[in-house]
Amino acid sequence: MDIGDLVVFKAIAKEQSVTKAAHSLNYVQSNVTMRLKRLEKELGTPLFHRNARGMTLTSSGKTLVGYADRLLSLMTEAKQAMQGDEPRGPLTIGAIETAAAVRLPAYLTSFMRRFPAVDLTFLSGTTESLIQDVLHHRVDGAFVTGPVDHPEIDTFLFCEEELVLISDQEHSPLESFQDIHARTLVTLQAGCMFRRRVEQWLAAEGIYPKKHVEFSTLEGLIGCVKSGLGVALFARAYIEHAARGEGVHYYEIPDAFSHVSTLFICRKDEHRSKALVEWIAAIEQKKEC
């Protein structure tokens, strides 16, 4: 169904005349007649009664008026959304759980207060899975752990995180990192950059924990570390937020492995909606940490 045909239909319904409708639309009369015939043929029913006094809607025509009003209203709304100054419409953002829990709540609240017409959807995942989500257009952008070096991805620094090793307070504190040989290493599943960082660090130190246990959720991981299951490497800000500094020992690790960047990423070749443009601008104006 052609939107232009519906515009002509509405004009005829209002003017009750093809001639007057053509004049109001600045169309030639033959064009208006052709469009009406095409619409009636497509719908398989007459839309007007023709008589000496003009044209009046049939029962089918009266039904179509309601739908035409809604369709034309949606078309106008869509044009305003594309051309208007205010960001609006859907915006799908992904984030690693540590950023989602600690760094983003205040930022999200501030953004939505500024741009209430944006319909935000928020998803969580690992860095590796979120990079794939961005590349395959499943999200408009994502907060991930850097570095990210991909020819199709733009990166924007959001914050820097300090990483610390944690253990429970029930067992004796680690006297040295060599004590990890006798402990269990607790990590998230593959794809987590904190896991990759602790594995790189321990390999560089020649340290091999006696066992490795992985979790799918941060809450489960932190709870099991606090109960004495093993040791884990995580962002200090998240541990202080989740555990409130209680029930764990902190250990600073070598500088070469102790800091990571949280980045916002999006595709280079993707058309950026006004909502995404404002999202990125807000990130660059308000870098954390």
From TrEMBL:
Alphabetical UniProt keywords: DNA-binding, Transcription, Transcription regulation
Residue stretches making up the HTH lysR-type domain: 1-58
Record-level Gene Ontology MF annotations: DNA-binding transcription factor activity; transcription cis-regulatory region binding
Highest taxon of the lineage: Bacteria
Listed PROSITE patterns: HTH_LYSR
Similarity comment text for this entry: Belongs to the LysR transcriptional regulatory family.
PANTHER family, sorted: HTH-TYPE TRANSCRIPTIONAL REGULATOR, HTH-TYPE TRANSCRIPTIONAL REGULATOR GLTR
Protein's recorded name: LysR family transcriptional regulator
